[in-house]
């Protein structure tokens, strides 16, 4: 830990969300003064909402833009227009108004969903982002994240605005959304499996074939990467944040099954979409530029996530 953050004025949009809820305490512990705009007060999809947010926050040294309209495959399929509109408008307003407010540094959050559906070479490198169209099931969201990167690069060229864009892979960990309508694959499988065990179900159905691969990054590792990049990285090129380890969805389910101690049978519903066939990121640039590497292995991270979910869901049951 350095003294970099002591006395710094920091804004974190999406600070009450999954990644933000891990980033904000780390910033506070490091000595930063953190302003977290809440969606009930500031609609960041409107110029008025963004302008008022900057007026209330005051001058800031660093802004982390984590706010986004997000969800799993099902949510992306049901609301593709919302996903591209909300994120395009929000991102554009945040970059432009941050520049006008003379924010010292803008840290934008991209997504692995911005990468092409299929690649010639894996793991995916940052220079591959524009080499093809994203996976169609989440392309509107992915395109919006590509636009954020391009906007930041353009603002740097034209105005000298110091904005960087980080592209994390699939995040997971305590505090994730376990809402079945919006959850991503890790919380979706954990919640289904825990409930199946509690109800003594002999069979559990999961989406797809189980064959696609993903690169899973523990949320605390991602939060640390954001802080290191904000402190040390000042270039226009995007930066990947990933574990570099490729895991099949079936392998993920088996790992969760062991931790949860579910003894039933897993059935794969092949009528449901798999999404992108492969996802694994090369994060050598992050290691070279600011010394970041993922530190939490998947088994350890899943254990923490499952225990957290079991505890909060038991509390909900006892209060019902």
Task: Give me the strand/helix succession.
Answer: EHEHEHHEHEEHEEEHEEHEHH
From the coordinates shown, what is the CATH architecture of the domain at 9-174 and 216-244 and 279-296? Answer: 3-Layer(aba) Sandwich
Helical element count? 10
CATH superfamily of the domain at 9-174 and 216-244 and 279-296: NAD(P)-binding Rossmann-like Domain
Reported for the largest beta sheet, the result is: 6 strands, parallel
Radius of gyration: 19 Å
Q: Identify low-pLDDT runs.
A: none
Give a structural overview:
The chain is of the alpha/beta class and 320 residues long. It has a domain of 213 residues: 3-Layer(aba) Sandwich (Rossmann fold). The chain is built from ten helices and twelve strands. The strands form four sheets. Strands 2-1-3-4-5-10 form a six-stranded parallel sheet, sandwiched between helices. Helix 5 links the parallel strand 4 and strand 5. The longest helix is centred in the C-terminal third of the chain and has 22 residues. It starts with 8 loop residues before the first strand and ends with a helix. 47% of the residues are buried. The mean pLDDT is 95.
Task: Name the features.
alpha/beta; globular; Rossmann fold; six-stranded parallel β-sheet; 320 residues; two-stranded parallel ribbon
How are the SSEs ordered, and which strands pair?
Elements: E1 9-13, H1 18-29, E2 33-35, H2 47-57, E3 62-65, H3 73-78, H4 80-100, E4 105-109, H5 139-159, E5 163-168, E6 170-172, H6 185-198, E7 203-207, E8 213-214, E9 216-218, H7 219-232, E10 239-241, E11 247-248, H8 249-260, E12 265-269, H9 284-290, H10 298-319
Parallel strand pairs: 1-2, 1-3, 3-4, 4-5, 5-10, 6-9, 7-12
Antiparallel strand pairs: 8-11
């Amino acid at each position: 830990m350095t003294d970099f953050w002591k006395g710094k004025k920091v804004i974190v949009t999406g600070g009450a969300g999954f990644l933000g809820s891990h980033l904000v305490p780390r910033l506070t512990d490091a000595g930063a003064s953190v302003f977290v705009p809440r969606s009930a007060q500031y609609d960041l999809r409107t110029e008025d909402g963004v302008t008022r947010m900057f007026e209330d926050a005051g001058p800031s040294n660093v802004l982390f833009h984590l706010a986004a309209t997000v969800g799993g495959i099902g949510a992306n399929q049901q609301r593709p227009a919302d996903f591209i509109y909300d994120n395009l408008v929000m991102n554009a307003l945040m970059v432009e108004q941050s520049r006008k407010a003379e924010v010292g540094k803008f840290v934008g959050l991209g997504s692995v969903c911005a990468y092409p559906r299929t690649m010639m070479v894996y793991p995916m490198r940052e220079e591959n982002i524009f080499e093809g169209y994203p996976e169609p099931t989440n392309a509107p969201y992915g395109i919006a994240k590509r636009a954020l990167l391009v906007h930041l690069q353009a603002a740097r060229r034209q105005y000298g605005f110091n904005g960087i864009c980080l592209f994390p892979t699939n995040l997971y960990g305590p505090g994730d959304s376990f809402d079945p309508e919006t959850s991503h694959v890790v919380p979706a499988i954990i919640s289904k499996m825990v409930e199946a065990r509690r109800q003594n179900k002999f069979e559990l159905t999961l989406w797809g074939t189980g064959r696609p691969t993903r690169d899973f990054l523990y949320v605390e590792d991602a939060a640390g990467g954001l802080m290191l990049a904000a402190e040390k990285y000042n270039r226009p090129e995007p930066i990947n944040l990933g574990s570099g380890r490729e895991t099949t969805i079936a392998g993920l389910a088996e790992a969760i099954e062991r931790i949860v101690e579910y003894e039933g049978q897993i059935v794969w519903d092949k009528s449901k979409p798999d999404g992108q066939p492969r996802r694994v990121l090369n994060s050598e640039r992050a290691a070279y530029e600011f010394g970041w590497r993922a530190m939490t292995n998947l088994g350890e991270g899943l254990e923490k996530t499952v225990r957290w979910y079991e505890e909060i869901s038991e509390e909900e049951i006892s209060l019902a």
